[in-house]
């Protein structure tokens, strides 16, 4: 059966379990995490690197000044993975680039790969690996002094700034990310109790999925929950064996009473608390994208195709609204309606933000974030878009459903969305 050369399929997708701040991955760099994810996605795809040319590697990371030499991220990951597979002539020499769109960076790696595969160039690409990674535990204090005019190797005096917190503040609009959630939530009369109830639900759904995920490892006929995640088997900073199989941030004992006692982050009586915000976390995800005709020609199976993607803008002071225009405009572009979508994954940057999006889009909660979200799992910023896309693919497959949309708000007043369709 022939297919248009404009169709892009996902041959495989995988993500690490997500670690919490200072947890599983405290001593592992973002590059290390990316290597795990790319190795796994190559294994899942079954491709032979000696026969299938990798045309490009698209990396995503935000905090590139943290630890190691992350400015060389795509090349470092490519060469390390190539060595693992004994490949010296393919992935090892594939060109690579790093892309960035804040919380939409994971989506941007998919968008960049999609564009590379659907271009009009007769010599366009056929196979692109995308990955996104972040170790927020390793973000640094940054000295922001400029180089002296008369001495290139010395610097002017300047304060040290928290590299992580710098990203949470949007100076031009005099706002912080939690403030944007407060404002957006208030517009839709979201209450703190509703936020706390939603946080409990996120943890409960994550816990339930993890318990069923464990059955997958412990029972011969275990179910298919969280198939996007794989076991990371490595060593910790003390040389001890480390075997990570589940997302670390989930609380199995969280309660409304506990959440009600937490101090608001923005203002007295506010909606955003440490318990109703996404968690600072670490992890990576990867996907192999191919031209559909190329995949068919080489007999490479693929679970899903990308129908399309879209990025939109909103008022930066209510950046959490981003998924609303991103999803609506993407649906319009694809001639779809909300009722055509079987499953949604909407990043839970803040409970107030998610609940406002839910109201605007009239989202059915029973088909949205069904296995929990970033409030329980974590929001390793650059990797989140690719993480939720991976989870969406496998949950659609588990349910025998067809169309899914993954979306997130993006700092600075943007939203991103990707539409997937499972392939029979």
Q: How far is the N terminus from the C terminus?
A: 13 Å
**CATH superfamily membership of the domain at 8-139 and 279-419:** Thiolase/Chalcone synthase
The residue fraction in helices comes out at 25-40%
The averaged pLDDT comes out at 92
Strand and helix order: EEHEHEHEEEEEHEEHHEEHEHEHEHHHEE
Total helical elements: 12
| Main CATH class of the domain at 8-139 and 279-419 | Alpha Beta
In short:
This protein is of the alpha+beta class.
What does this structure look like?
The protein is of the alpha+beta class. It has a domain at 8-139 and 279-419: Thiolase/Chalcone synthase (Peroxisomal Thiolase, Chain A, domain 1). It is built from 12 helices and 18 strands. The protein has helices at 30-45, 73-84, 105-118, 163-168, 177-187, 192-218, 256-260, 292-297, 323-334, 351-361, 374-377, 384-399, and strands at residues 8-15, 19-20, 56-60, 96-99, 127-135, 141-143, 147-148, 151-155, 160-162, 169-170, 175-176, 232-235, 241-244, 281-291, 304-313, 343-346, 403-410, 414-422. The strands form 5 sheets. Strands 1, 2, 3, 4, 5, 14, 15, 16, 17 and 18 form a 10-stranded mixed β-sheet that branches. It has a two-stranded antiparallel ribbon with strand order 6-9. A hairpin with a 4-residue loop joins strand 10 and strand 11 (175-176). Helix 1 packs across helix 2, helix 3 crosses helix 12 (384-399) and helix 5 (177-187) packs parallel to helix 10 (351-361). It starts with 7 loop residues before the first strand and ends with a strand. The mean pLDDT is 92.
């Amino acid at each position: 059966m022939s297919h248009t050369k404009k169709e892009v399929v996902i041959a495989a997708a995988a993500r690490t379990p997500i670690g919490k701040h200072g947890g599983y991955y405290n001593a592992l760099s973002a590059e290390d995490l990316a290597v795990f994810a790319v190795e796994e996605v190559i294994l899942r795809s079954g491709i032979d690197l000696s026969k299938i040319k990798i045309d490009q590697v698209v990396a995503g990371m935000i905090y590139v000044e943290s630890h190691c030499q992350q400015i060389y991220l795509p090349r470092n990951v490519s060469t390390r993975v190539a060595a693992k597979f004994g490949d010296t002539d393919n992935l090892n020499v594939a060109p690579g680039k790093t892309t960035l769109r804040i919380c939409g960076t994971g989506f941007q790696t998919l968008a960049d790969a999609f564009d590379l595969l659907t271009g009009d160039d007769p010599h366009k690409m056929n196979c692109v690996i995308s990955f996104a990674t972040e170790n927020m535990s390793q973000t640094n204090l940054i000295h922001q002094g400029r180089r002296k005019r008369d001495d290139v190797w010395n610097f002017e005096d300047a304060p040290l700034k928290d590299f992580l917190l710098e990203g949470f503040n949007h100076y031009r609009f005099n706002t912080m990310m939690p403030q944007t959630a407060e404002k957006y939530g208030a517009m839709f009369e979201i209450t703190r109790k509703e936020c706390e109830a939603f946080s409990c639900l996120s943890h409960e759904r994550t816990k339930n999925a993890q318990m069923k995920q464990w059955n997958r490892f412990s029972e011969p006929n275990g179910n298919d929950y969280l198939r996007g995640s794989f076991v990371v088997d490595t060593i910790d900073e003390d040389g001890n064996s480390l075997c990570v199989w589940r997302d670390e941030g989930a609380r199995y004992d969280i309660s409304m009473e506990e959440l009600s006692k937490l101090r608001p982050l923005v203002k007295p009586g506010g909606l955003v608390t440490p318990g109703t915000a996404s968690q600072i976390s670490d992890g990576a995800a990867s996907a192999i994208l191919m031209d559909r005709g190329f995949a068919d020609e080489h007999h490479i199976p693929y679970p899903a195709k990308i129908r399309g993607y879209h990025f939109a803008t909103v008022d930066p002071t209510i950046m959490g609204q981003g998924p609303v225009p991103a999803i609506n405009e993407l649906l319009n572009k694809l001639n779809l309606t909300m009722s055509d979508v079987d499953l949604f994954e909407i990043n839970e940057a803040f409970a107030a933000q998610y609940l406002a999006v839910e109201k605007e889009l009239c989202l059915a909660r029973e088909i949205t974030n069904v296995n929990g979200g970033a409030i329980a799992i974590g929001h390793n910023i650059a990797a989140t878009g690719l993480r939720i896309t991976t989870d969406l693919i496998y949950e659609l497959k588990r349910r025998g459903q067809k169309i899914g949309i993954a979306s997130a708000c993006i700092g600075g007043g943007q939203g991103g969305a990707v539409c997937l369709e499972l392939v029979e």
